[in-house]
Records
---
Amino acid sequence: MSSALEFEQVCKTYPGDRGVVLDRVTFAVGVGEFVVLEGPSGSGKSTTLHLAGALDRPDAGLITVHGRALSRHRRHLDRYRRHEVGIIFQLHNLLPHLDAQQNIEVVLLGGKLGRSQRHERARTLLNQVALDAQANVRPPELSGGERQRIAVARALANDPKLVLADEPTGSLDDETAAAVIGLLRAVCDAGGSVLAVSHDPRLTSAADRVLQLVEGRIVADQRGA
Amino acid sequence: MTFLGLIAHNVWRRKLRAAVTAIAVGIGVTAVLALGVLTYSLRQTAVAILRTGNADFSVSQRGASDVLYSALSQDDIDGIRKTKGVESAVGVFITTTKLNAAHPFFIQVGIRPQDEASYGVIVLRGRTFTATAPHEMMLGWRAAKDFGVDVGSNFKVGDQNFRIVGVFTTNNVIGDTTAMFPLTTLQANERQPGIFTLAFVQVGPHVNIPTVQKAIETANPRLATARSESDYGRVDRNLVLITAANIGGSILALFIGATGVMNTSLLSFYERIREFGVLRAVGWSRLRLLSLVIGEALLVSLIGAGAGIGVGIGAVEGLTHVPQLVGVFKPTFDAAIFGRALGFAFGMAVLGALYPALRAARLTPLVALQHE
């Protein structure tokens, strides 16, 4: 299986009390694979996602996405974030002044799609997360689960080949969590890959592999259920 | 949603702040427009006086504070006539008088009847005055229309009564609103016998005009010649001062307006760091973020410019009723003045928003996302 995402001896240290967060982390996520990264708080899970999403840079080591070194793409990181990766944030990070539809369309601005195509794409994604009726509702007026689903829809807007998700089902009821897991699984079925950080057994049980991260090191790599 | 729609949306969600910034920009644009129209119009009036007639160039006293305060002697006129290449030099005496509240600066021109043709005067009705007639005058056709008088009417200037013997045109707006008198009559009435204000010079065929101008100024350093519009500043210091005040005032207004825009944009930047982080995290380029922030400032500035231009036109209209400007200030709006006002608004937006926009564009996505 070829790799969608590969970490090779990646290190990350933050100044102050946090110190070494990732210590020579090495792992790979294959094409079409659904991998969950779990571990205790402060083990470096979110940092791993941030590095994979090019939101931050490693101090050492190599991160490759579909065979291309991320750290060498410094001038093309915007393009990478725009076209190759979709990120689902734990805190959703939706823009509160835009409605659900606009939160998805804003990602598509400046791309190849025209106005009506952007509108149509956002509508389709809202339909996939069963939020058609809330298209014109702003995030503060939505429940946590609804916001999470919009965040998922937004991450999928540019049809990314790699989806990074930080606790995507943590605050969701079983039915909604199953729907979100279904969407992530659909990404893998379509040839994409998913790396999710989670403590949620509903998600780990749906994963192809589960990586255990403890004190900045991968200590276990298990096949999923 | 479109990019422009997002810009408008972001401006609208901070309506009050945007309105205050637009007002600041509007005040600046009003100042620039009013100063620009005032300067342009006064310049046009001065230039029109200097351009009246069929002359190749005009000659006045160098360094006069106002072209109408220029004083040339008969010897100066004779010296100009003797300059190699000069075909004719017409000496005219120009002064202003207050006729009434509506005409506080009525222009009077003293000229010899035989020089009228060289000066470009065409008698439309009646005849010209005789050279030494003490109570004869001619009126430009616009002035005649304005005062409701014609050939044969009496016309009072100060304590003296004149009879209008002719109505003329010079094919020049300012020239056609003036009155003409026999040269010696006007000089005597103004107690300035033998004094001329300007000389209008025509050169012979195939003569190099700048060479003749230089020869006149070299022979008599107290004289200044003016041919092009840019030369007129040399012969009218007031014009130079007004133009300088216009430029200085505009630059000052630009910086004050830009400071207002920057204040708003910086406040907005600090409030929206997390929002910018989200946009960067979902793939917005630095350039797109830069365009968003500057685009918002541009939109606010354009709204301010629209309001400022409207108020500016009203302010200029108001200036025409200022007693000191009645009769002298005839507002002239041209495309360049509006273009300058819009350019000014554009400048304020870019100058004021550039720093906050650059800061927004340089944000590291993760740092911005973690901003509280």
---
Amino acid sequence: MKDFEYMAPKTVKEALSLLSQYQNETKIIAGGQSMLVVMRQGLLAPEYVIDIKALSELDYIKYDEGEGLRIGALTTHRDIEKSPVIMKRFRVLSEMERNLATIQTRNWGTIGGNLCHGDPAGDPAPIFIVLNAKLKLISQGKERIIEMENFSKDMLEVDLHPGEMLSEIQIGNPKPHTGVAHEKLMVMQGDAGIVGAAVSITLKSGNGICEDARIAVSNAASVPLRAKEAEKRLVGKTITPPLLDEVCQVASQEADPPADVHGSAEYRKEMIKVFVRRAAAKALERAKEG
Amino acid sequence: MKGEPKEIRLIVNGKVYELRVKPKTLLNDVLRKDLKLTGTKRGCLESTCGVCTVILDKKAVRSCSILAVQANGHEITTIEGLAEGDKLHPIQEAFVNHGAIECGFCIPGRVMMAKALLDENPDPTREEVRIAMQGVLCADVGYVKQIEAVEIAAEKMRGGE
């Protein structure tokens, strides 16, 4: 690993001041569970590293009946997994965390670090996309809110301006009769997903017709892929097994997955069908329950 | 200045250490090279194998994937901190007596993983033990004995025989 200059601000204010001062060749480190790997591989060699891991101001999980869920960027994966309010109201996040990585990585790694790493194989981004999550990005004297869906720009690239950092993930309460599920293909529990699929389905009360659907797939393109054509096939229809077959075919056609040692592009396309279908079937079941 | 050493303070196995380390130094290097606590192993260096597992503020973490400067001010327990003199910790004792050690390379990490689990959850189900043990890979495929050893240790630590 190349040498760098290290700074550890004590407050968010101090961090933003350092970020505005060091805008070039600077990386923010949180848990570093992904970043240190790419730094050791020499893919990343920042001049300056600003360590925000210890900023407890951004380590929180808040829930409000009206506003929904707010997760501070420096909340660890393990705390999200174990949060009673998340287990009760957003169980898909708790389920996702159990499969995200090993316990040691989840103990130190943060949700914000995961999102800012911008890995299209990551699990949280597709789930936040189907949950319609928003991200609060802060810089000195400014803040902006963007949709999770627009955050990823390219492989390992996200929409963070110089001097800016992620402070919070915001998720509104889902509409009644909404079910959300995540399924991923992995060799062993806690491995990176070969592909993963998150699906949210909202049914109209009474007649069971699909009112809204969101599908997002990991490792299916250079960014977390929202399968919009597949979603359109669901909306306005009664969801039947043949319709789910069609939807997962369409999602697979929308994907342009990478090929690597874990699977060829063709294999991933096949598996996207399987995993979108599984996640959609589970989301539908959950939507019917509540 | 780039690479300029930083002063850090670590509490390792109850002892306070004041050190100067380069920012890129991994916690694993400080434990092994500076403090000569070589019980903690160095494996894949890419957060896959888990043999470098130590306990930081009561949680199992991978010492190869944390900068030493990030551990500043934190409390760390390594495998050397478990035995009391010649008396092995119940987890160590169970691993030895139950024949759960083959080549031994992953065992320090695995014992720390087991300790973090049992300190938080003294009566885990087999599934919970299995999930925790997944965090450390064993190239000898000795998982069954290791899982059983953790269960034996758990029972002893709860006060049973």
